[in-house]
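User: Okay, second chain of the day. Same drill as before: sequence in, structure tokens out.
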Amino acid sequence: MRDSDVIEFIVVPPADRVAELTHLKEQFLGYLTRCFPQFMFKLAPFAPVGDGRDFGVYPIMNYLADDGKSRMCNPPANWTMAEIAEACRGFTAGVGRA
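Assistant: Same drill. Structure tokens below.
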């Protein structure tokens, strides 16, 4: 049975870095996975919320349980998303974990 804590996040880069990070998607997602091995990440080019000036970090809050029903995860702490956004800002192509 799956744990009910959030384990996956969608990361949306600021508008001025979308092209760069889309091109470096595997490197960027690998960097985040090394920084936060307990989580999984997906990259998206835009979000329906936010102003596009900074990284958006959005938890995937639902999952399909073993009984086939959709369940909600426990929300992550705000500091978790802030730490992920800070790591995103620290990403530099060709450089390992900061």
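The longest helix spans residues 78-89.

User: Thanks, on to the next one.
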